[in-house]
Amino acid sequence: MEFVNLTIDNKSVKVEKGTSILEAARSVGVEIPTLCHMKLDDVNIENKPGGCRICVVEVDGRRNLAPSCCTKADADMVVKTNTMRVLNSRRTVLELILSDHPADCLICAKSGNCELQDMAHKLGVREIHFKGEQSTYKEDFSPSIIRDLNKCIMCRRCETMCNEVQTVGTLHAVNRGFMAVVAPAFEMDLEKSTCTYCGQCVAVCPTGALTEVDHTNEIVRALADPKKKVVVQTAPAVRAALGEEFGLEPGTLVTGQMAAALRRLGFDYVFDTDFSADLTIMEEGTELLGRLGKHLAGDKDVKLPILTSCCPGWVNFFEKQFPDMLDIPSTARSPQQMFGAIAKTYFADKIETKREDMVVVSVMPCLAKKYECQREEFATDGNPDVDYSISTRELAQLIQRANIDFNTLPNEDFDHPMGESTGAAVIFGTTGGVIEAAARTAYEVHTKKKLEKVDFEELRGMEGIRSATIDFDGLPINIGIAHGLGNARKLLEDVQAGKSEFHAIEVMACPGGCIGGGGQPLHHGDSSVLKARQLALYKEDKNKPIRKSHENPYIAKLYEEFLGAPLSEKAHHLLHTHYFDKKKDIEIE
Amino acid sequence: MAKYKTHLLVCGGTGCKASASDVIKDKLTRELDEKGLADECQVVMTGCFGFCEKGPIVKVLPDNTFYTQVTPDDAKEIIEEHIIKGRKVDRLLYKDPTSKEEISDSKHMGFYKKQMRIALRNCGFIDPENIEEAIARDAYAALGKVLGEMTPVEATQIVLDSGLRGRGGGGFPTGLKWKLTAQEKADQKYVVCNADEGDPGAFMDRSILEGDPHTVIEAMAINGYCTGATKGLVYIRAEYPLAITRLKIALEQAREYGLLGKDILGKGFDFEIEIRYGAGAFVCGEETALIHSMEGERGEPTFKPPFPSVEGYRKKPTNVNNVETYANIPVIFLKGAEWFSAIGTEKSKGTKVFALAGKINNVGLIEVPMGTTLREVIYEIGGGIKDSKKFKAVQTGGPSGGCLTEKHLDTPIDYDSLIACGSMMGSGGMIVMDEDDCMVSMAKFYLEFTVEESCGKCAPCRIGNKRLHEQLELITQGKGSKENLEKIRDLCGVIKDTSLCGLGQTSPNPVLSTMDNFWDEYIAHVEEHKCASGACKDLMKYIIDAEPCVGCTACARVCPVGAIAGERKGPHTIDQSICIKCGACVDKCKFNAISIK
Amino acid sequence: MAKVKSLADLQKLKADLQSKVDLREKGDRSENLVQIKVAMATCGIASGAKQVMEFFMDELEKRSIASVVTQTGCMGYCYAEPTVEIKLPHQDPVVFGYVDLKKADEIIEKYIKNGELVDGIIPQNYQTIDENN
After folding, report:
1. B459 and A96: CB-CB below 8 Å?
2. Which of A111-125, A472-486, B16-30 has the lowest mean pLDDT?
3. What is the tens place of the pLDDT at every residue in C61-94?
4. Is position B37 within any domain?
5. Which of A115, A362, B6, B247 could share a disulfide with A389, CB 3.0–4.6 Å?
6. How far apart are CA B532 and CA B438, in angstroms?
7. Domain co-membership, B24 together with B98
8. Distance of residue B9 Cα from the nearest chain C Cα, in angstroms
9. How far is C115 from chain B (nearest CA, A)?
10. A173 vs B456: CB contact, 8 Å cut-off?
């Protein structure tokens, strides 16, 4: 490894050759401000178009200021990050950006969490010297995401996520000059594009240009309606991230406080999506074993590998981009939808409430869930199984709005019966978790033996594509894992080409899985946040008394009282779905 | 039927005409008639000789006698002495400024020809659609020489020794660029011809491709041999259909003759060329943007390094040269690096092609040795300013360049002196402006171009240029103040200092150079709200002078917006709040009562 | 056309072609052969060079003048487009500017038929690479 020595603000710095000035400076505590640069080390994502020009620095011997994010540190370089020239230019450039940005900070969805606002504060901008025309674009409301491009600062982070990371290819820079902006081709609406609503664009947007559709007001209205029984479910990954919104360290588990907060918000039943995650394992695991059994019996028509289907961004992805492979994924609905279907049938019966009088709310780390719960196939007579899906961020907002001091709340438990879950369900929130949970159950069901070592370390980690072979008592099961749709595409293309050796593949649309979902508290480019959340989920799993889905007593009871058996006709009706060719709906003008 | 033995060519260029060359022609004709020589000798008016300094010019054929500064009174003597007696009129002959000797035969006064055609050597000579005509004029001979006699390193050295610098505007040494690409190790390399000519008014590259496509093909093949590339790409804007057609024909013919393809001239060198079309974005002339565009990506630049020589097209080492640069290459090999480097100035060798346009008499495509002065270009080759107006400025370097004024006229044209004067060579647009041109509007025009053509990637170029344009707009509308001028200067500095690519880094140049050279004009715009040239419509007023106005009502009737009022037979007035400054009233007034203030 | 396989081939080809061109210029038929080049770059075509070229082709044939009419690239005289170069046998080429159909007719009648120059000649005002040795 080659190192170079240079000077940054009179400090000598030694860094590996090839390191950017920005990172070299950071290593000695000089934080150069930037708006467009973003680097998520653990998931191998970097956005550095060198476009915002905020991070410019003076390098001795160079005619122009150098963008520190894309200028490599060189031997004997003398860099100054805070000269008059730099400060003046940086501020002028920021003023220019602000001069083409709506000044509606007070009511902006991003207010208080906006990197542009922070930058204006940091650089002490009190006046914009260059006023002029502002660019205007039409607003775009999709079921999950709102695009208000007047607030786009062309940092291109969303574009990097959408194309390089997710390979979805929806967002691109369009137009030229002053009218340049990031949008779908021909500035079409997201709804008509290849968008999967994974929300990774929203997760990285530094301003209010990309935000989620806000459903908090609908929730407040439902809670205030005395005729409605309002049931809430919270996804596994929410508990590992919600605390961040209240100043807690990333990775702080707030399961108990979250349940308490939901109760104080007025939800009639505080349940857990983890419950239906266990249910998912029962259905999906059984489906896996079924297909595997047929395969081993020599059935040539059976489709393997089986692909997980609990991630709605992923479902949208293959429906829009691989319509020829709709028979490969598991038909099991996502835990959110299984929960809704059971809540509005089994549970509604139990509390003798009519479907129409029940409101099911889900709290999700995800924006695609907003779209998912609006799918026609997940409604009965127009009444959706899940009425509203809100993000982790929206829940935090509701808690703040209701004057609830989150950090002083006691730990409370979820309600029964749909609040009970196992450790297998908790890890649904991280990449590798679903397949690990499935393996725990499938192993025992298939081998009829007790699984001694519950932790499948070989399935864990942050590598974009991972694989492992698990020994099912003499039967080697090849498992593939992908998170990030770009990685999923690679595995899927192998399957398409008939080159895949896997029996089962877990796919999660977002880097890191749900912990890095589009609805989570913003990581602002710090990938250690994702790691901390992941560790928290494994910790919760470890602390759970029951760690295998099929051992969840309430799940057993559900089958006994209501569903019969996994893949029964009733289960099929309520817990499984089918997929549609949505490629043909994509509008190409 | 007359059979003329002698022709008298009288220069009918604008400069000579202004010095009564048509009277000279008449007098010569009359003299011939009187002497009964009308059947033997014919007087003909010609276009500009490009020697306006010594005009009017009369040239006698067939002996090539070249008379300078001829007056109508000299007609008689020329006829009587030269035509009848066969004795040259010595006092009218051109005198060599150093030796003071008279030179009678224009064949010996090549030096008066300010132009020299290297890149354009075949343009206008050969049929560009016929490879045989090109070969007859030495096409592919340089390639043959290189493949047959030189190693890639030796050949590159010749380009280095020639001192050739990039003609696209940057002026980077071509040989060095080749060397850098040659040094890289890769399984595939590319050479790219940048034919994305985008400066307003520039058409040098188009003319070369339309007139002599084989020179570019040959040079690219040599470039490929030197750098180790077997694939060439021509990135050409789709708005150049004729150039594309001719290039395609030329490629086809070159393949047919085995001058492209496998084992060229039996030397084991393979080379192919493909065409890539650009959609006409100015920024795609920037090499990284060009490469992205060729790859099917958005045409926008990326930060350098890595330079294309290391990581270019499809991440492979790529050498990008401009059309005109390539057009010089074969000549360098045929005539030698020494020959080439003897032309031009110390640091700028060879010639440069310019598209000379604007308020100039001989609008044209010219090629001059580096070091030629602006004065020579404008007054000799260009034949001076149109309608005998006063020269004000010349713009070089397009939207990245600047304005040069009277005081720069004797500046030799080369890369470095132009930069020293606050402009730049650019790709070769040269636009001449006269007293009617407003320098603030001019700066605004170029900025408008940059605003349109910015890719929008970096904030200072995307938003800064827009704001700059808005500030200039205020000034030309009479709404500006000195404070705006300060803002403009500050903003120009930041845009230059912080923009990502050359487009943004140079976009303030037209503004800065006009501010430097025509500060008074800016001041007049903001302090007196006056535009001396009358170009800024918002700053001028039509006024009816009560005295000459007879109240004929003609102006009021023609005014399309009803801004003129007045009693019949009484003086009329113009309501300035309504007037749209169309000028219809001025044209209609027979009494010269309406003036511009 | 057979491929040019070596440098020697190329040199021979060049010599042949040159003599072919020379033959055209100086050979037996030189008394009758007039060479006309029309500047057919985009700018020339925009100014009407195509019509002028067609006119020369049609009219020279009609008027039984042995001639070769070819196109060429930009001569650089934008101010005087369309431009046409006429080379009469044994004479230096002459470039005419502003050649519209009327002018073209005049050129045929006066210059080509009688060697009588007409107004609008553009003197060559540049050096060629061969002059500068």
Report:
1. yes
2. B16-30
3. 899 888 889 899 888 888 889 999 998 888 888 8
4. yes
5. A362
6. 8
7. yes
8. 9
9. 7
10. yes
Domains of chain A (ranges, CATH numbers): 3-122 (3.10.20.740), 140-212 (3.30.70.20), 227-275+335-419 (3.40.50.1780), 281-332+422-553+580-585 (3.40.950.10)
The boundaries of the domain holding residue B49 are: 6-111
Cα Rg for chain A, rounded, in angstroms? 25
Q: Is residue B121 part of a domain?
A: no
What is the bridge-based pairing of β-strands B190-195 and B318-322?
A: parallel
Mean pLDDT on B529-540: 87
Judge if ipTM > 0.95. no
Q: How many CB atoms lie within 10 A of CB A479?
A: 23
In this complex, do A51 and B303 lie within 8 Å of one another by their Cβ atoms?
no
In chain C, domain spans: 30-122
Helices (H) and strands (E) in chain C, counts: 5, 6
Over the stretch A371-394, which tens digit does the pLDDT of each residue have? 999 999 999 999 999 999 999 999
Identity of the residue numbered C58: D
| Of the candidates A146, A140, A82, the residue with the CA atom closest to the CA atom of residue A108 | A146
Identity of the residue numbered A300: K
pLDDT tens track for A230-256: 999 999 999 999 999 999 999 999 999
User: How many independent structural domains does chain B possess?
Assistant: 5
SS3 A229: strand
Return the H-helix or E-strand segment holding C43. helix C42-46
User: Which residues in chain B touch residue A89, judged by CB atoms under 8 angstroms apart?
Assistant: 494, 497-498
Both B423 and B457 in a single domain?
no
- Collect all residues of chain C within an 8 Å Cβ-Cβ radius of residue B354: none
* Location of structure tokens 């996994």: A566
Nearest CA in chain B to A94: B459
Residue B466 at interface with chain A, using a CB cutoff of 8 Å: yes
DSSP of B26-90: HHHHHHHHHTT-TTTEEEEEE---S-GGG-S-EEEETTTEEE-S--GGGHHHIIIIIIIT----G
Residue B35 contacts A, CB cutoff 8 Å: no
Partner A contacted by B459 (CB < 8 A): yes
Give the nearest chain B residue to C69 (CA atoms): B127
| CATH code of the domain covering residue B406 | 3.10.20.600
B303 touches chain A (CB under 8 A): yes
- B119 in any annotated domain: no
Backbone angles phi, psi at A472, to 5 degrees: -90, 65
Which tokens sit at C105?
Answer: 């007719």
Residue with token string 């500095």:
B493
Name the nearest CA neighbour of A257 among A275, A244, A273.
A244
Distance from CA of A33 to the nearest CA of B (A): 15
Q: Residue B73, exposed/middle/buried by CB under 10 A (0-12, 13-18, 19+)?
A: exposed
Whether residue B56 has a cis bond before it, omega within 30° of 0: yes
Q: Tokens standing for B125?
A: 């000579």
Q: Do C127 and B7 touch (CB under 8 A)?
A: no
Assess contact for A437 and A281: CB atoms under 8 A. Answer: yes
Whether the CB-CB separation of A249 and A533 falls below 8 Å is answered with no
How far is it, in rounded angstroms, from Cα B563 to Cα B582?
11
Verify C-B touch: 3 or more CB pairs within 8 A: yes
Q: Which fold has domain C30-122?
A: Glutaredoxin (3.40.30)
CB atoms within 10 A of CB C129: 19
Helix (H) or strand (E) holding C93: none
Residues of A tagged active-site:
284, 287, 310, 330, 369, 372, 377, 514
